[in-house]
């Protein structure tokens, strides 16, 4: 085994972001974890100044240059990088002089947000599992007596001669059927996913086409796709339903916003994430789908409970769409998160493209 390819493979499988900089603070090497952190590709950033990756203070850049000259390592805690996309990333980083003719500095970056994100994801997964257990138990307790009520109403209907009284028994039967259907919807898909080769962009394009027809040109739909994403095993029909639930919520939020948003817009964005952890499992490759709208946002008191069944911000909403989405994505070993503030709501869906590493 040749040493150079072996060490390169090690760097590419690290979850720590690693950069190699030359004496002019230009990027010589960036590993996949750093590509994911800074939202860039290694080919595009090759030989570019480190300031193209993130915006740092003049003082911090001066310290980097002094480390090149002096050969002294240093560590900075709680640094906040501003990415070119406008995203802020809080991280600790260490600088080590690198004894090589080409490279001058080795930069190791540990995002501070990562541990917070993993903790939040574990809470979401626990919340999802708790919700499933609660709904299953409640469904069992509701459907059993409903069956008895419906059966008794049918027997009574046969015994009655008066058409007026039969109307009452039919109301009972219809309402029992309606409640049973509602409980079934709360349980989510009633069959296991039919896994087959699926393309995430075909799913999103189907959703976009449906909503464009519904909106009748009142909302702009934008796309920012990573076309290099591979196909994966998934249930295309269920995934369309999951993403449609999220995007339709965005469409309805824009439609009911007062005053109306200037240029109402929904953005579909996809990105590949490498060496990404969902709950207890680490995945080599994950697709991140962002569905972003510029609507009024979700109230803070509702945001923490938005994935629970029967929780809705609309007077006529059932509160089942997002719970069903969470259930479908969970069956694909993924996760749904939400970030919201006035003028920007982002539902983030993570789906593994490969089995856990």
Automatic annotation (TrEMBL):
- Alphabetized InterPro entries for the sequence: HATPase_C_sf (IPR036890), HATPase_dom (IPR003594), His_kinase_dom (IPR005467), HisK_dim/P_dom (IPR003661), HisK_dim/P_sf (IPR036097), PAS (IPR000014), PAS-like_dom_sf (IPR035965), PAS_fold (IPR013767)
CDD domains, sorted: HisKA, PAS
Q: Which EC number applies?
A: 2.7.13.3
* Entry's Gene Ontology BP terms: regulation of DNA-templated transcription
Keyword tags: ATP-binding, Hydrolase, Kinase, Nitrogen fixation, Nucleotide-binding, Phosphoprotein, Transferase, Two-component regulatory system
What is the top-level taxon of the source organism? Bacteria
The protein's name is Sensory histidine kinase/phosphatase NtrB
Natural source organism: Hydrocarboniclastica marina
């Amino acid at each position: 085994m040749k040493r150079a390819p072996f060490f390169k493979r090690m760097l590419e499988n690290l979850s720590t972001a690693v950069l190699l900089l030359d004496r002019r603070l230009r990027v010589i090497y960036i590993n996949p974890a750093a590509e994911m952190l800074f939202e860039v590709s290694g080919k595009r950033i090759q030989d570019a100044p480190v300031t193209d990756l993130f915006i740092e203070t003049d003082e911090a850049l001066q310290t980097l240059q002094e480390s090149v000259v002096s050969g002294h390592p240093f560590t900075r805690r709680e640094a906040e990088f501003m990415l070119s996309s406008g995203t802020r990333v809080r991280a600790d980083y260490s600088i080590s002089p690198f004894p090589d003719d080409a490279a001058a500095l080795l930069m190791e970056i540990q995002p501070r947000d990562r541990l917070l994100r993993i903790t939040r994801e574990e809470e979401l997964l626990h919340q999802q599992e708790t919700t499933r257990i609660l709904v299953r138990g409640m469904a069992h307790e509701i459907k059993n007596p409903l069956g008895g009520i419906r059966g008794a109403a049918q027997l009574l209907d046969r015994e009655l001669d008066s058409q007026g009284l039969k109307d009452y028994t039919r109301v009972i039967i219809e309402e029992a059927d309606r409640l049973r259907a509602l409980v079934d919807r709360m349980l989510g898909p009633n069959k296991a996913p039919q896994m087959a080769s699926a393309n995430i962009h075909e799913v999103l394009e189907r959703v976009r086409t449906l909503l464009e027809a519904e909106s009748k040109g009142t909302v702009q739909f934008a796309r920012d796709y990573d076309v290099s994403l591979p196909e994966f095993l998934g249930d295309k029909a269920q995934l369309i339903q999951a993403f449609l639930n999220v995007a339709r919520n965005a469409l309805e939020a824009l439609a009911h916003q007062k005053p109306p948003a200037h240029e109402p817009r929904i953005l579909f964005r996809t990105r590949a994430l490498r060496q990404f952890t969902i709950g207890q499992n680490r995945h080599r490759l994950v697709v991140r789908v962002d569905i972003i709208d510029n609507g009024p946002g979700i109230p803070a008191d509702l945001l923490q409970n938005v994935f629970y069944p029967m929780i809705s911000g609309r007077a006529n909403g059932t509160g089942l769409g997002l719970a069903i989405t969470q259930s479908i994505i969970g069956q694909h070993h993924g996760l749904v998160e939400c970030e919201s503030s006035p003028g920007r709501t982002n539902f983030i869906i993570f789906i593994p493209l490969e089995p856990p590493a």
